[in-house]
UniProtKB/TrEMBL annotation:
Domain Acyl-CoA dehydrogenase/oxidase N-terminal: 16-127
Pfam family, one: Acyl-CoA_dh_N
Keywords: FAD, Flavoprotein, Oxidoreductase, Transit peptide
Acyl-CoA dehydrogenase/oxidase C-terminal domain: residues covered: 240-382
InterPro entries membership: Acyl-CoA_Oxase/DH_mid-dom (IPR006091), Acyl-CoA_Oxase/DH_mid-dom_sf (IPR046373), AcylCo_DH-like_C (IPR036250), AcylCo_DH/oxidase_C (IPR009075), AcylCoA_DH/ox_N (IPR013786), AcylCoA_DH/ox_N_sf (IPR037069), AcylCoA_DH/oxidase_NM_dom_sf (IPR009100), Glutaryl-CoA_DH_mitochondrial (IPR052033)
SUPFAM superfamilies: Acyl-CoA dehydrogenase C-terminal domain-like, Acyl-CoA dehydrogenase NM domain-like
Span of domain Acyl-CoA oxidase/dehydrogenase middle: 132-222
Protein name: Glutaryl-CoA dehydrogenase
Gene3D superfamilies recorded: Acyl-CoA dehydrogenase/oxidase, N-terminal domain, Butyryl-CoA Dehydrogenase, subunit A, domain 2, Butyryl-CoA Dehydrogenase, subunit A, domain 3
Naturally occurring in which organism (per UniProt): Actinoplanes derwentensis
GO MF, one annotated term: glutaryl-CoA dehydrogenase activity
GO biological process, one term: fatty-acyl-CoA biosynthetic process
Family: Belongs to the acyl-CoA dehydrogenase family.
Top-level taxon: Bacteria
Length: 391
């Protein structure tokens, strides 16, 4: 048997011992708590998220890149490697960690009050509470500047009205980060989901990310005290910075899905015989495997470069830098999944193999937290100095 795809260039030599240990921990968690049942969860259209959250919390996977409040204070690269191992099991499971740690917890950690941080960060880190991040709306996905959700003052309180959709974990969340337009701009709130006027609807007929929970949030006259507002969030740049933080997890995570597909195709090709010999020995198969391995390694080096830059900076990466990573790595991971399916022929669509599940999941990852087109325009704007977004 030959080498594994990421071993071809000895890329492990670029990682510290601590980073390799974090990766090994995440791989054990995925092997013990996800892989044995994920195909069944995908078919059933749901996973035991609360049970998984507790296990992930024990392993310190939530908000591990954040410091203080009992959090891990680890590196962005370590978080990325953990996300790669989790997404090698399933994209929906990795999304749980990204949404909880890099959207919900990061929003509170960066923009919240001390009271909010003390109340929520330890609970979210332990997995005892589940969070969701309410930005996207039915008519405003790629263009959050047009959001319709409104926050108005009523004495010392705020009243929230609106609808959020495609919100990961919404049907089961204990707390929601809700973004709304107010008189002086975009504001964010930490909203307990049991407050009056807050309801959710499960989106159950999806054909992708089925081992996860996704839904709509309906806000009908939700009354909140001013203490629920994120005091450090004063414009749309606040939720966008949270997305920038979370996209780094995606850039790493999709490499796990691609690697799992490639490992599966390699093992399959070594044992599947046609015309009297393993198909791994045919030139066309080897050309596919070589090209996919090349893209996987390039994606890893890109993710590592961005992770190292993030760890050397005091703040998030520039949006166009994140756009390069998400555009390339998600697009190439999806191509790898599709190509691996061709190597496996009809068997590639069976649930007993992970390839078709990964390909289906990656179709969603291609869209959420910025479509390919949005990231192309982000890069194009930086290259030309011209804004091509519709106004």
């Amino acid at each position: 048997m030959g080498v594994r795809p990421l071993d071809l260039l000895d890329l492990d030599d670029l990682l510290s011992e601590q980073e390799r240990d974090t990766r090994a921990l995440a791989r054990r968690v995925a092997d013990d708590h996800v892989r044995p049942d994920v195909a069944r969860w995908f078919e059933a259209g749901g996973a035991p998220v609360r049970e998984l959250a507790i296990e992930f919390g024990k392993a310190g996977l939530f908000g591990m890149q954040l410091s203080g409040y009992g959090l891990g204070g680890s590196t962005a690269v370590s978080l990325g490697l953990a996300c790669m191992e989790l997404e090698a099991a399933d994209s929906g499971v990795r999304s749980l960690v990204s949404v909880q740690g890099s959207l919900v917890m990061y929003a509170i950690w960066r923009y919240g009050s001390e009271e909010q941080k003390l109340a929520w960060l330890p609970e979210l880190a332990a997995g005892r509470s589940i969070g969701c991040f309410g930005l996207a709306e039915p008519d405003h996905g790629s263009d959050p500047t047009g959001m319709s959700t409104r926050a108005g003052r009523d004495g010392d309180d705020w009243i929230l009205d609106g609808v959020k959709t495609w919100i990961f974990n919404a049907p089961i969340a204990d707390v929601a980060i809700i973004w709304a337009k107010a008189e002086k701009g975009v504001v964010g709130f930490v909203v307990p989901t049991d407050v009056a006027g807050f309801t959710t609807r499960d989106i159950s007929d999806k054909m992708s990310l089925r081992a996860s929970s996704t839904g709509e949030i309906l806000l009908d006259g939700v009354r909140l005290p001013d203490s629920a507002r994120l005091p450090g969030a004063r414009s749309l740049m606040a939720p966008l910075s949270c997305l920038t933080e979370a996209r780094l997890s995606i850039i790493w995570g999709v490499l796990g899905a691609a690697r799992d597909c490639l490992d599966t195709a390699l093992d399959y090709a070594a044992t599947r015989e046609q015309f009297g010999r393993p198909i791994a020995g045919f030139q066309l198969t080897q050309a596919k495997l070589a090209d996919m391995t090349l893209e996987l390694q390039k994606g890893f080096l890109l993710a590592l470069h961005l992770g190292r830059r993030r760890d050397s900076m005091s703040g998030p990466l520039r949006p166009e830098q994140i756009s390069v990573g998400k555009l390339n790595n998600v697009r190439e991971a999806l191509k790898i999944a599709r190509q691996c399916r061709t190597i496996m022929g009809g068997n590639g669509i069976l649930a007993s193999y992970p390839v078709m599940r990964h390909a289906s999941n990656l179709e969603s990852v291609l869209t959420y937290e910025g479509t390919s087109e949005i990231h192309q325009l982000s890069i194009g704007q930086k290259l030309t100095g011209l804004n091509a977004f519709a106004r």
